Amino acid sequence: MALGKDYATQECSIARALEIVGERWTLLVIRDALYGVRRYNDFLVHLGIPRAVLAARLQALTAEGILEKRRYQQSPPRDEYVPTERGIALWPTLRSLGRWGREQFDQEQVRVFRHAACGTELGSYGECPACGTIVPVPDVVMEPGPGADPDPADPVSRALLRPKRLLTPLGPDPV
Ligand SMILES: [Zn+2]
C-alpha cells in the first residue's frame, strides 16, 4: 500500500499543514520562490530535482493557493510561479527551520537576513533588534553568509551572491 499523505486520525493544525508542505522538496520549492525564483528552469537547476517531481510540486502548490501561476510569455507559452499571501506566510516557519538546522547540527550560516531600512541582522523571531519591529517579508534583505558555497554552474546560486530583497524576482547574472 502506498504511503498516504494525509493524517486522517490527527485533529491537529500541524498535521493539516503537513498535508501540504510535508512532501519531500515542497518546502524547498517554497523557499526558492520566496528568494525570488519564479521560473521552472530556475527551480530545476537550483534544486537539482527530477522534472516530474518539480512539475507535481508546482501544480500542488498552485492548487493549494501557495503559489500563483502567471503567464509571462504567450508563444511558446511560459508560466512563472509567484508566492501568494498564503505562501509568504510560511516565511517564519522556513526561517525557524533553517535556524534550528544550523544550530542543532553546527552548520555555518549560508544566508544572512537583514532589515532593509537599517541593515540590522534579524533576530530569532524575525524582529529587527534595532527598530524593535517584526520586519515584513518584502523588507527583508538576504545576502550570502560565511557558509555560502555557490555553484558556478547554477545561475540562481550566482544571482543570490548579491544582496536582494525577498520576493523580488532574480535579476540577471552578476558580471
Ligand atoms: Zn531595523
TrEMBL record:
Instruction: Please tell me whether the keyword DNA-binding is annotated for this protein.
Output: yes
Q: What is this protein called?
A: Helix-turn-helix transcriptional regulator
Q: Where is this region: Disordered?
A: 142-175
Q: What are the HTH hxlR-type domain coordinates in residue numbering?
A: 12-109
The top of its lineage is: Bacteria, Bacillati, Actinomycetota, Actinomycetes, Kitasatosporales
Keyword terms of this UniProt record: DNA-binding, Transcription, Transcription regulation
Presence of keyword Transcription: yes
**Top-level taxon of origin:** Bacteria
